[in-house]
Amino acid sequence: MTTDERYMRRCLQLAANGLQNARPNPMVGAVIVAEGRIIGEGYHVRCGEGHAEVNAFASVKDADSYLLKDATIYVSLEPCAHYGKTPPCAELIVRKGVRRCVVGCVDPFAKVSGRGIAILREAGIEVTVGVLEEECKHLNRRFITFNQLRRPYVTLKWAQSADGFIDHDGKAYAFSTPFTRMLVHKLRSETDAILVGRVTDEREHPLLDVRHWSGRSPMRIVLDSSRPCLGIDFSLPVLQQLMDALYERKIQSLLVEGGATTLRHFIDSGLWDEMRIEISPVLLGKGTPAPALPKAAEVMKRDQIDGNIVLYVKKKE
Ligand SMILES: [Zn+2]
What we know:
7-stranded mixed beta sheet; 12 strands; 5-stranded mixed beta sheet; elongated; about 25% strand
């Protein structure tokens, strides 16, 4: 691991603390290094409050401030260039007079994209872009997908038996363990909206909340032609209208929790980014078959928890 990567990894660690509260802003971490040590660090804690760079500079002790002229600031996402709720961080970095800036990845947000980096370079600061770029992008995959594709980041989630059924002969079956259920509630707390189809809603009356984790409960959506929501016209293609409606409402992430028909619609239309599949060792013999994995599916991670297997699947690029 290079020195730049080591400090960028620290930025990523810091940034991840903003997972629940930075939304709808991206998670960002910043580290200021001089004479081979960290003299300041910070992350974006909450939307509306200071950005990572502001917090990092604020944490530098007065006794260390003379080091700034030779310092390097590491930021996991390109510093902002526009006046939002706070002044632009690119201008703050210029004002503080650091020598070098290392950026994890470019900000896809139209008001920033490349302009933050341009401001720094014009001021004579040496800029390096793309250190741990894939990890920096992955951390903000919801924010990036929302801004680039103008739709929420879609995660499909289901649980199934070892023999491939998502229910037992049409009746709901509890595949998860107390611990994996808690993980699902954690995932929900990190998501802006959850969707289920009509059949799942009628059969299981899912609460879709986060009662086994702390944090806010996501917006709950039931896709039901007899109870249209979000202004969707069911005589027209539904999923694209849904994506547009959620984009308008600034919903950056959507968790689709079934059932089989709804999941298949998303898979067939290619409107998904990630899947979380929990497989219990139980054999049920009959039931509703789990969706088949599409060709574009690639397993990123495989966890074994309480005897269940949890697969994290992403779409091949
Ligand atoms: Zn900023």
